[in-house]
TrEMBL record:
Protein localization: Cytoplasm, Perinuclear region; Endoplasmic reticulum; Golgi apparatus
Protein name: Trafficking protein particle complex subunit 2-like protein
Name of one Pfam family that matches: Sedlin_N
Keywords, in A-Z order: Cytoplasm, Endoplasmic reticulum, ER-Golgi transport, Golgi apparatus, Transport
Keyword hit for Endoplasmic reticulum: yes
GO biological process: endoplasmic reticulum to Golgi vesicle-mediated transport
Family: Belongs to the TRAPP small subunits family. Sedlin subfamily.
GO cellular component terms, semicolon-separated: endoplasmic reticulum; Golgi apparatus; perinuclear region of cytoplasm
Length: 139
């Protein structure tokens, strides 16, 4: 089972990448950048409606033969992308949505840390533990 979680800055450079198994991290850089383009398209298509609805979950960005790519964007335009193995049929939309909420809450905790400089790569043990527990739950 393949799971990958990516956190990207508003300027679309990666702040955090985690994959299970770990040897696939580099493989997903291309997938992440193409999915960030899809996220930007969805945001611009929604325009003001996105801000009015406060709907941060973008849903399924695109499926491929091997995996499904889901997206989420915060109010500050930080993007979360999750890549899940297509063979995992146990994951429903509401479970993906709740995992993105957990990611967003943990990211908010990092931003509240006075020693974290916004825009730096995320090096937080608490964030790592949360992502790892979420990935183990999915696998």
């Amino acid at each position: 089972v393949l799971v990958s979680v990516i956190c990207s800055s508003p300027q679309n450079y990666p702040l955090y990448i985690r994959s299970i198994p770990t040897e696939n991290e580099l493989k997903f850089h291309y997938t992440v950048h193409t999915s960030l383009d899809v996220v930007d398209e969805k945001i611009s298509a929604m325009g003001k409606a996105l801000v009015d609805q406060r709907e941060l979950y973008l849903g399924l960005l695109y499926p491929t033969e091997d995996y499904k790519v889901y997206g989420y964007v915060t109010n500050s335009k930080v993007k979360f992308v999750m890549v899940v193995d297509s063979s995992n049929t146990a994951l429903r939309d509401n479970e993906i949505r709740s995992m993105f909420r957990k990611l967003h809450n943990s990211y908010t905790d990092i931003m509240c840390n006075p020693f974290y400089n916004p825009g730096d790569r995320i090096h937080s043990r608490a964030f790592d533990n949360m992502v790892n527990s979420m990935m183990v739950q999915v696998c």
